[in-house]
Amino acid sequence: MIVVAITGASGVIYGIRLLEALKELNIENSLIISDAAKTVIKSESDWKIDDIIELADNYYEFDDLTASVNSGSFKFESLAIVPCSMKTLSSIANGYGDNTITRVADVSLKERRTTVIVPRETPLRTAHIQNMLTLSQEGAVILPAMPGFYSNHYSIDDQIDFVVGKILDSLKIENNLFKRWE
């Protein structure tokens, strides 16, 4: 099972598209949406929160510190935080697990499960880069939402699929969401 967390950074469409791809690939997933992400979703998309939740097999509330996913004994294969706000990134890097997303990230890292973090901010402060370095040193994959242009597909959907395809690659999930370099 893949846990997908959507935080309040710009680029929530990456998380939504990842959920769609996991559903298309028939891969079980769980979802957590931060309160800030719900605001961003309304601002950046036409998606309804309930429709996004329906893409997931399981849903956990953002402020439920008793959620089963927050325990190391709960079995999941990997975690993708898409997009990841700098606040969430900082909390995870500094071991501050005050909500379901930061707690599941703590579990994923301490249990050495695949953890993919997709920061969506530019430009970056030194503190942001240091937090990414800390998480990378702990085994997280830092996958900034930086689309590639070598496939000659330039639509927004193509660029979203490129980033989501790279996320799926990092999760070791076969996909054909983007044209690979030949």
From TrEMBL:
Domain of life where this protein originates: Archaea
The enzyme's E.C. designation: 2.5.1.129
Catalytic activity: dimethylallyl phosphate + FMNH2 = prenylated FMNH2 + phosphate
GO MF: carboxy-lyase activity; flavin prenyltransferase activity
Binding of FMN, residues: 8-10, 34, 85-88, 120
Keywords for the protein's UniProt record, in alphabetical order: Flavoprotein, FMN, Prenyltransferase, Transferase
Transmembrane portions of the chain: none
Keyword Transferase included in the entry's annotation: yes
Binding site residues for dimethylallyl phosphate: 150, 166
Domain Flavoprotein: 2-171
Enzyme class: transferase
Family to which the UniProt record says this protein belongs: Belongs to the UbiX/PAD1 family.
NCBIfam families: PRK06029.1, ubiX_pad
Function: Flavin prenyltransferase that catalyzes the synthesis of the prenylated FMN cofactor (prenyl-FMN) for 4-hydroxy-3-polyprenylbenzoic acid decarboxylase UbiD. The prenyltransferase is metal-independent and links a dimethylallyl moiety from dimethylallyl monophosphate (DMAP) to the flavin N5 and C6 atoms of FMN.
Name recorded for this polypeptide: Flavin prenyltransferase UbiX
Source organism of this protein record: Methanobrevibacter millerae
